[in-house]
Amino acid sequence: MARILIVEPHADIRSLLELVINRLGHEPVVYNGGSEDPLNVDAAVIEPGEGPGIAVARQLRPRGVEVVFISIFPPEPEALELTPSAYLVKPFPLYALENALSAALGALNGKTAAAI
Question: Is the pTM of this model over 0.85?
């Protein structure tokens, strides 16, 4: 079971993301903007266009945490420079998020296997 960080400013979408992550058998970790370290996660689903999304992604990517961006905005160069595993534009079908998370976690597992 992977720990997947959710950085999404809208409560209704955040709840939906939690359901999808749980359904995939993983543990959702909701970022609440506090001072705790958000980096003890395996992957993240982040809204880069609002709130702390880009800042959190900038902390995660150097540590090798895979990031899936979901946004109502088209990709900006600032977000793409962080090489997300996927960039989904809302609205998108839930299976697209499931596939993106599976691919992100697969990339993580591939890195782990290559390092051993």
Answer: yes
